[in-house]
Amino acid sequence: MNKPDGQGTFSPEIFVPAEKWTSPERDAAEREKLWPKTWQMVCREDRLIGAGSFVTHDILDDPIIVIRTGDGDDDLSAMYNVCQHRGRRLVDRTHGKLGREITCRFHGWRFGWDGEVTSVFFEEDWDGCPAFDKSKLAVPQIRVARWGGFVFVNLDPDAESLESWLAPVTEFLDPFHIQDCKPHFWKRIHAPINWKTYIEAFNEGYHSGETHTLGINYRVVNMPGSAAGVHGRFWSESLGFSEYRLRGAKSWTQPETFQENLWANMAHQYDTLFALTLEPSMKAADRIRDLPAETPPEEVMGQFYQNIVEETEKSGAVFPKDLTMEAWLNAGTDWHIFPNVIILPSTDGALVYRSLPDPKDRDKAYVDIWSLGRFPSDYEGPDEPDYYNNFEEFIGACPFLEEDFANMEAVNAGMKSRGFKGATFNPNQEVQIKHFHDMLDKYCGKL
Ligand code: FES
Ligand SMILES: [Fe+2]
Question: What domains can you pick out in the chain, each with its CATH number?
Answer without folding.
Answer: 1-38+168-237+317-447 (3.90.380.10), 40-158 (2.102.10.10)
